[in-house]
Amino acid sequence: MLSLIFSFLFLFPCAVYSRDRWTEAQATTWFQSQTYIMGSQYITSDAGNQLEMFQNDTWNPTLIDQELGLAESLGMTTMRIFLHDLAYLQDPAGFKSRVNALLTICAKHGIKPLLTIFDSCWNAYPKAGKQPEPRTGVMLSAWVQSPGVIALLDQTQWPRLQTYVTDVVGTFANDARVLGWDLWNEPDNSFNSTQVAALVQLLPQVFDWARSVNPTQPLTSGPFGTDYLNGIGGQVTQIQMNNSDVLSFHNYDPANTFETHIKALQKWNRPIICTEYMARTRGSDFITVLPLGKQYNIGMINWGFVNGKTQNNYPWDSWQNPYTTYQPYLWFHEVFRNDGTPYLIEEAQVIKRLNGCPKGFKSTAQSLKGLTCYNAYSAPLNFTDAQAACNKNYANMAIIDSAAQNTELLSYLTSSFSSCNSFYIGLYPDAYGDWLWPMAGWTYDSSSYVNWKSGYPINSTGSTCVVINKDGTWSNQACDSPQCYLCSY
The pTM is what? Predict the structure, then answer.
């Protein structure tokens, strides 16, 4: 009987009352209760648009599980995922079941998604069913608006949009697996005056519909453009800023401009989430912009995750000039290649460091090489296999460049890995007998930090690998001996 009741509530959610917009204090309390919000816009790499991801025939939970495992490996805590009204209209119960399955997979990987309800970008005439193949060399060529322009301008279709909003948000209104609701992505992006006039009527209703089912998660909608910089904003921006529980914005500019936008938005005294950034050829990247977002304690969600049918590696101008004869010298968006390897390993390392060194140890000791994250592994491997295992996790064999760091690491290793007597680290000798660190060529001369055990290093051609022992000293030995090992990045 209980399962029947749950199934009924899942299919026909009912709200007790409509809530108001959160106060500044309520929004701040919510934000402070969250793990630091960092992630990507996510769509399965085998889908060209929202419909292809969520329609039953092309729904691929196995791939979602695999790709969100990549997000977990970086310590990401959220994914911004776009839904679609036509996928719901086609099969309401099935659509909600798939969203529920998505949330289960997300929770498995420590991710609370920000679910996006509507979107005004790219193709204006969406159709359910089989979706078109992407155009060669063009980003987001199959992406579709939701609602399409026909439904936007036809008020007789607005009741079905209301049902979509209230049913989907209502079904998951009390679900702790959901981070929040991004009700409309860039609502007036490329709209003409007729479309904007309809939007100005519809957008406030969308917020009202969502609030009517009393969601425990925040509502937001990020402006298209920069008119909020004047502290007021245009008509559509005002609707967004005056209805959002937490503020969101998009910015694809370098760090100095990005910081200007943060400071402008702080005047509203609400938590801030940047729900789109990272366009490498524009100077918006993980290396310079992401640390700034962390410094200001704003949520950070970049555009693009795994390269696939959306082809987000191509820039915006690919719509006018498709990349059919040559590839861009630098990818525009995306974190991972289709084979699951990072596009740039140094970006993956920055993301992991800013996410607190997931499943590892964060050193507070000053590092000459900027390395602060360490992961030890207790499954013994020879040195070559250990180095490969570190590389698979976007790291190298550990570099230790100060006494303070060595002391911190000793505490980490002895408290968490009691079964290991020693751990491979990255120090190795070159042909001249100088000891070097991996993948860098930094030579340690007599003034550099070392902590050799008494009698070491031994002068033996077969003892070219180094371990840190349980007492914190270092010794060199043969590289084919299976040992626990320590990685750093």
Answer: 0.92
